[in-house]
């Protein structure tokens, strides 16, 4: 039963970019929109400390969109499209990864001190004409690139092929971490952070076995940064 469920899910879901270990997305967590709202938007906002000016923000976004092969009109409101294009580019190999990180570096430099506010989920929500889900997808992308393009870069680029194996038949156990996370969250909705801790441990163990301990740490970090604002004290 579990096997056929996983088999079916991997066929259907991989086609839409789910469970890509190179760039985890919000869809991977199998949470409903309501759950995303509950678990990621329950705190009060505090973005007002710095400003995000729309003109440099637009310029920074134009540069990033074109670097990943998208029309200039692609903005943070098209978070799924941006994520998919970024993933596709990284999937081409080390040169694609370098191009994505160069584009990300340019994005950060253009925004300067306003980077944090421009990529803050509450700030983006305040701009309107979007939803919680889209904002999570966008902020997730930015957080993941922060890690992939800085402290995680060396480990990531020298293990691309091994990380990619989790996309294939070897990835059954990888995907099982996500299904288990979903089952745990639903069985015990008030212990989201406990489920998260178990989940990132599952990812850590999978990649340590499949690749090496550096990849185990890096992939665990990649997941951890997505939850760290809401679950304190998570460690890889
Ligand atoms: C993701 O991008 C690839 C390559 O550009 C494209 O073929 C595919 O349809 C896109 N998938 C989604 C879900 O947007
Ligand atoms: C997540 O878990 C719930 C509760 O066990 C289940 O009903 C749902 O189908 C699961 N979602 C996915 C995508 O497997």
From TrEMBL:
Residues 1-17 form the signal peptide. It comes from the Eukaryota. Keywords: Signal. PANTHER family: CONJUGAL TRANSFER PROTEIN TRAN (PTHR34311:SF2), PROTEIN CBG21698-RELATED (PTHR34311). This is DUF19 domain-containing protein. It comes from Caenorhabditis japonica. The lineage of its organism: Eukaryota, Metazoa, Ecdysozoa, Nematoda, Chromadorea.
